[in-house]
Structure formats: C-alpha cells, structure tokens
C-alpha cells in the first residue's frame, strides 16, 4: 500500500485514538461505519477523518463507509502492532511497577522481558512473573537479549545515563517517564510521558486563560 | 499584564516545558538567559521562544535576554501555580498509587485530600498520610470539601461514572488516566494521559514510517 511521506506528528498522534475506537467497534461486532458515524464517536470531523486515513492509503468506499475489521487491521499494522516488542523497564518505583502491572500492554504485543532497579529491597521481587534485577545486570542483559523498547522510570538525575546504556546496547525505542528531556541520535525514537507537564496544562486551562 | 486571546493549545503545551527549564536555571543560580541560550537548552528555535512568550506579555529585553526569576514567576502564575489545588484521586490501583506517591506534585501546589477505591482490601490503608476511603464516600466527601481537581485512575468501564460524580459535585478539572475519552460540559477541563496512545505513537515511529 502506498503511503504519503512526511506525515505530520499531529496525524500520527491521532492514530492510536482511531485504533482504540476501532477495537471497541470490533468488540461490539460493528462491521462497517461511515466517516460521519465515526466522527460522532471519535470527535474529529468527518473530513478530518478522511484526510487522516488518506495519508496511509485508500480506505473507505463512497456510500459504504469503512470496513471496521479491515481498517482495524490496517491501522494495527501502520502502528507496528503486527510485531512483538521485547521490553525492559528500568526503575521499579511506583510508575515502573504500574507499567509492569499494566496488562493492556501484553494485549498490544509488548513482552516484558526484565525489570531493573538500584534498590536492593526490590531486587528479587517479582511483578507478574518477571523478576526485578539489580541495575548492574542491565548492560549484560541487553547484550544477550534483543530488546526493542526501554521504559525509563528512574529519577531525573539517572535518566540520561540509563538512556545511554540502553542505546549503546541496541535499544531503538525509549518510553521515558522521567521528568527530563533525553538526548539521543536521531535514529532513536523517544516518547515522553511528562506527567507534570500534563498536569500543568490542566491548571492553565482551569484558570480560564 | 495583557495577554492575547485564543492562544493555541500547541503554545499552551510548551509552557510547562519552559517552566521546567526555568526551575532548573533557578536551582543553578542562573540570573538571566538570552533566547539563543534558552533555545539551545530547550530545543525550540529562538524565534519560536520569542513568539511563544510574546503571547503572554512583554518579557525579555533586547540585548539583555530574559530575567530568569521574573520569567519563572510569570510563567508559574500563567500556569496557575500561584494557587493551591485540592485534589482527590479515584482509583488506588497501580497508577493511582503512583500518582499519590509522586512528591513532585506537592511542590507544585497540589494538596492530596483523599483517595477512593472500590476494593475493601485497599480501604483504610494510607498513602503518605492520606487514607484510602471507600468509593461510596466520594459524593459525601465532595459535598463537604471544596475539591478542584479529580484524578481518575479507575478502569475504563467506571471512568465516565466517576467523572459524572466529580463534576456534579463541583470539580472543574479532571486528570484522566483511564483509557477512554470522557464526556463533559465545556466549562469542565479534562486532561487525558492515555498511556497506550503514547506507546503506540512510539511503535509507529520505531517502524520508520
């Protein structure tokens, strides 16, 4: 299938939302849906939806709408969900444990291979059958296991160092929860979840400006 | 101070990042900074920075740059951080506990007033001196305590119901961690942290499309 190049981040960030809604339609045995109906559910305009999906190919049919199962499959594949991701979590504090316990990720194809922490009180404990290892094992582990994704849940001071170790050992994707912007070469993909940035956006909006 | 109306969400979402960097400069006793230096640190272009900050007033001085302390104070106030936010967390699972334990929020002026959960094994336990209460107490609690912010950390199925209860009882700001889009009147501000959306953006990027 032909895809346009240079798809904007705004479009890309809407894709997971399409995926979420299509999953729901699948669960509810919806076979097809018009861009108008999809628009009412998802909250984007019908024209926005057509434009977004056109970036990735020729979905939908005039007068028929979208075949839910086909579109779901296609978006899964665009999002790279037809693959498995070997994942390590570094930092087994509250956020790290929350991520490790988040069963939704299994369903999306993420395989939690290992968890690392610096705290000896945590090492040896298990979260959903995955043992928390001493952080000193991280490098060794990465050498002998092909890991695609590293989740960084350490304090801000250690985040860049952890990021460097992950990248030096072949990890290409970083999901960063530390409240700091990490530096890496361009071929490394970093996605930040800056919780306090999100909260401050909310307080801004709350103050009616 | 005069502020332009209709400031775009893109600008608003950059503000917390300015705030984060200015906090760091304050810690490191930096008194003033040029838009060029700020640009190198923060990764936005100098012209972007001037444009962003101009939305909120006349900061910075030709040839001098920005006074760090003044700009920090001003952005704190724009973000509404000169106020205190009474906060409740609904859902004391992994994410709820992680949020409750996140001490950074105290520093930003968030006061955790109560935590609620449906699980009797959790009620009565304390997180940082705040007791987890039965969710049946939520409505009553909101009636007798002025709460500004509700953090929703319940499963997707209960999220809208919890949101409705919070709003009916005067909560104006919702920080939503449930993987679902909540519906509310326009005067209610909802900020979503959709973790799986963030992760799927990363897998998209990883697949080099």
UniProtKB/TrEMBL annotation, chains A, B:
Q: Which UniProt keywords apply?
A: Cytoplasm, DNA-binding, NAD, Repressor, Transcription, Transcription regulation
Query: Record's superkingdom?
Result: Bacteria
InterPro entries from the entry? CoA-bd, NAD(P)-bd_dom_sf, Rex_actinobacterial-type, Rex_DNA-bd_C_dom, Tscrpt_rep_Rex, WH-like_DNA-bd_sf, WH_DNA-bd_sf
**Pfam families xref list:** CoA_binding, Put_DNA-bind_N
Sites binding NAD(+) sit at 91-96
Q: Does the keyword Repressor apply?
A: yes
| Domain annotation CoA-binding: ranges | 80-181
List locations, semicolon-separated. Answer: Cytoplasm
Which residues fall under the DNA-binding region feature?
Answer: 17-56
**Complex formation:** Homodimer.
**Function (record text):** Modulates transcription in response to changes in cellular NADH/NAD(+) redox state.
Q: Which NCBIfam families match?
A: PRK05472.1-3, PRK05472.1-4, PRK05472.2-2, PRK05472.2-3, PRK05472.2-4, PRK05472.2-5
Family, as annotated: Belongs to the transcriptional regulatory Rex family.
Return the protein name: Redox-sensing transcriptional repressor Rex
Question: Which species is this record about?
Answer: Clostridium brassicae
């Amino acid at each position: 299938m032909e895809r346009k190049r240079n798809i904007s981040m705004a479009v890309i960030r809407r894709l997971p939302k399409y995926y979420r809604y299509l999953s729901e339609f699948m669960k509810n045995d919806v076979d097809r849906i018009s861009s108008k109906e999809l628009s009412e559910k998802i909250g984007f305009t019908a024209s926005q939806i057509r434009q977004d999906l056109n970036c990735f190919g020729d979905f939908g049919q005039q007068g028929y709408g979208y075949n839910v199962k086909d579109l779901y499959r296609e978006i899964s594949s665009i999002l790279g969900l037809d693959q498995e991701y070997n994942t390590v979590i570094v930092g087994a504090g509250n956020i790290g444990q929350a991520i490790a316990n988040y069963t939704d990720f299994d369903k999306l194809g993420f395989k939690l291979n290992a968890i690392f922490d610096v705290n000896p009180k945590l090492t040896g404990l298990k979260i959903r059958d995955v043992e928390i290892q001493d952080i000193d094992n991280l490098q060794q582990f990465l050498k002998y296991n092909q890991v695609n994704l590293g989740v960084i849940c350490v304090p801000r001071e250690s985040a860049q160092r952890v990021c460097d170790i992950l990248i030096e050992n072949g990890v290409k994707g970083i999901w960063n929860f530390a409240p700091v912007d990490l530096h890496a070469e361009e071929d490394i993909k970093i996605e930040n979840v800056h919780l306090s940035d999100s909260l401050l956006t909310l307080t801004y909006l709350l103050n009616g400006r």
